[in-house]
Automatic annotation (TrEMBL):
InterPro entries noted in UniProt: ACP_syn_III_C, ACP_syn_III_N, Thiolase-like
An example Gene Ontology biological process: secondary metabolite biosynthetic process
Ribosomal protein recorded as keyword: no
Name recorded for this polypeptide: 3-oxoacyl-ACP synthase
Domain Beta-ketoacyl-[acyl-carrier-protein] synthase III C-terminal residues, every copy: 250-341
Organism: Streptomyces termitum
Gene3D superfamilies cross-referenced by the UniProt entry: 3.40.47.10
Lineage of the organism: Bacteria, Bacillati, Actinomycetota, Actinomycetes, Kitasatosporales
């Protein structure tokens, strides 16, 4: 979707717990040395018992302080969209409204958005539609957070594509200006591939209700066996969906990949990052955020925004630079956004944020 209206990222924030070196996980037997070497991962962020919604509140506090520099107050927000890829708390309870209560604390709508790891980009697109349809409020708060510490999850071995990490990100989408202007946002899906994440698992009863772990590798093994038995593999490669989504986003933004300064992508392990994201786009790891994500892991839907915050606050992208945000999720679906940096990060101003 080409964004023709003035829509900006007015604020952005991230929160990450301490890192656990992958070498430590190997030393205590949680992770295999061969897998560690193949992944290229150096560390993973682990929050232990800190609830995911509380991490979202911490990230949102930073994003809201930064957005307040544009004149936004809590009364200017029309909605909160919270993204999660794993369970947030009690069944039948609303994590989005918990985050709303502890951030904006206003009687606006709050909703949880999926699907999975591209949720925050999906929420970004929804925020654009919201601002276009309702001029009564000038901003929407986006949050994303996950904690994969429950015993039923083995963050080190649930997938060879990534290591599950804990953390949160937040962003403020606004009409009033900010540090980046949104040029395009959208997604491309390949629904015929949705069964790859089911892996033969029954839809009912839901796996978590019978103590089944979140284990993508078991589901991949299921399909490897089926294909060895003669079942037809998917005709579409996820990398092709990535390329199609990126091509569309770039065209709608009126730019080309050669004009993109950096790519903020999902925090995959090295091999998967190249196969799914970098190789289909014919770009190098240095064009993305691998130097950052290999110390973090895969923080669900938060990854692209954690990367953007890192690049902006370190001055690795400056006004005039265009940045591609990119994520893939179950479905299969790939979402992209193109933003243009319009204001530099100013450390002196950042210190003054605490007074707002």
């Amino acid at each position: 979707m080409k964004v023709t209206a003035e829509v900006h990222l007015a604020g952005i924030g991230g929160w990450l717990p301490p890192e656990v070196p992958t070498a430590d996980a190997v030393a205590d037997g949680r992770y295999g040395e061969a897998d560690r070497r193949a992944s290229g991962m150096l560390a993973v962020r682990v929050a232990d018992a800190l609830p995911a919604p509380d991490m979202a509140v911490r990230a949102a506090a930073t994003a809201l302080r930064r957005a307040a520099r544009t004149g936004l107050t809590a009364d200017d927000y029309g909605a909160l969209l919270h993204c999660a890829t794993y369970h947030q708390g009690p069944d039948g309870w609303s994590a989005p409204h918990y985050v709303l209560r502890h951030t904006l604390d206003r009687p606006v709508g709050a909703a949880q958005i999926g699907p999975g790891c591209l949720g925050m980009l999906t929420a970004l697109e929804m925020a654009v539609h919201r601002l276009a349809a309702d001029d009564a409020a000038d901003a929407v708060l986006l949050t994303a957070a996950d904690n994969f510490s429950p015993a039923v999850v083995d963050r080190w071995n649930a997938s060879r594509l990534f290591l599950l990490a804990d953390g949160a990100a937040a962003a403020v989408v606004s009409r009033r200006g900010g540090f980046a202007r949104l040029l395009s946002v959208g997604s491309v899906s390949a629904p015929a591939m949705e069964e790859l994440h089911r892996g033969g698992e029954e839809l009912f009863p839901p796996g978590i209700t019978v103590g089944r772990s979140l284990n993508f590798e078991e589901r991949s093994d299921h399909w490897r066996r089926r294909w060895a038995e003669g079942a037809a593999p998917p005709r579409t490669h996820l990398g092709d969906v990535v390329a199609a989504a990126v091509d569309r986003a770039l065209e709608e933004a009126g730019t080309g990949l050669e004009k993109i300064a950096r790519i903020c992508h999902t925090g995959y392990s090295e091999g998967a990052l190249h196969t799914i994201y970098l190789d289909p786009l014919d770009v190098e790891a240095a064009d993305g955020t691998w130097d950052f994500t290999r110390h973090i892991g895969h923080v669900g839907a938060a990854d692209p925004f954690l990367g953007l915050e890192r690049l902006w606050t370190r001055g690795e992208v400056v006004p005039g630079d265009r940045v591609l945000l990119l994520a893939a999720g179950p479905g299969m679906e790939v979402a992209c956004a193109v933003v243009e940096i319009t204001a530099p990060y100013q450390p002196a101003t950042a210190r003054q944020e605490e007074d707002l």
